[in-house]
Amino acid sequence: MNRTNSPEYPAHHAVFSVTALAPRFPITHEVPAQALWILVSHQRVAIKDGDNPQIYLQAGPRPDIRSLCLIEYLGHRGEVPCYAAGLPDDTSLPEGWTLNGVRELYGRILDEDLANASFAARMIGSAETSRFCGRCGHETESVLSERSKRCPACGLVSYSRISPAIIVLIMRGDEILLARSPRFPEGMRSVIAGFAEPGETLEDAVRREVKEEVGISVKNIRYFASEPWPFPDSLMIGFVADYASGEIVIDNNEIVSAGWFKRDNLPMLPQQMSISRALIDYWINLKSGL
Ligand SMILES: [Zn+2]
Question: Where are the chain's structural domains?
């Protein structure tokens, strides 16, 4: 395989991507009598545990739900509209329901439900930060024809914030570069990642982040896959690049150690549910590098 051309990447399964809820716009101000609810509090999602854990609370327009401070339409699940409800702090959950971090739900509920739970947490988080206009401070209202908020006083329309971040696998011969962030669990290493800055292309961001964090230059940057990473609002855009030049010099801030690793001496890797692991697994399975 010629690595300077984009190889055929295996389809990446992004577990946090939204696939199952089909939005129907315009929506109505009134919540329909029958709806599904995903209950969210502080980025945690309620589930009813058991043999068949549920994240959807089926309910009519109960007063205690209608009076919730935040309600966001997510989409239709079949013929039934599905909403996220942001619970006020003093609200008690229905009997048998508990709040869980989205990542804690991985493997406990269906991937489709995990994506929807993640989406619900993301939309409530976004609603919390867009309740008031960023320009004039007036309370905003939902636009019924799309996912946005509009300020009735000054007209400013705002969309959910999405923060693009690059993540890049760097290959050199039969090795890859793996680095350790102080935020990682003990012993774990991963690929280089960082947020894009205003005014730069994603390729610029790859070159800059790699240079800043580990001091080397890369070439042949090509797209791999992307994944929404809702903790809280990143969109991870994955790339593969080849080593070009330079010696590893770590920044000692974002990165505390970095090195080149062969397939037979890999350290502890990120968990399966991440694009970082998908990038590394892609390389592990590359036959040409053996
Ligand atoms: Zn305004």
Answer: 35-129, 163-289
Centre of ligand 1 from the C-alpha of residue 157, in Å: 9
pLDDT tens digit sequence for 235-250: 999 999 999 999 999 9
Distance 148 CA to ligand 1 centre (A): 14
How remote is the CA of residue 197 from the centroid of ligand 1, in Å? 26
Contact yes or no for 241/169 (Cβ under 8 A): yes
Q: Is the peptide bond before 26 cis (omega within 30 degrees of 0)?
A: yes
* Interatomic CA distance for residues 37 and 288, integer angstroms: 48
Fold assignment, 163-289: Nucleoside Triphosphate Pyrophosphohydrolase (3.90.79)
**Distance from C-alpha of 29 to C-alpha of 229, rounded to nearest angstrom:** 29
pLDDT digits (tens, 9 = 90+) for 1-29: 334 444 444 445 566 776 678 999 998 87
d(CA 253, CA 234): 21
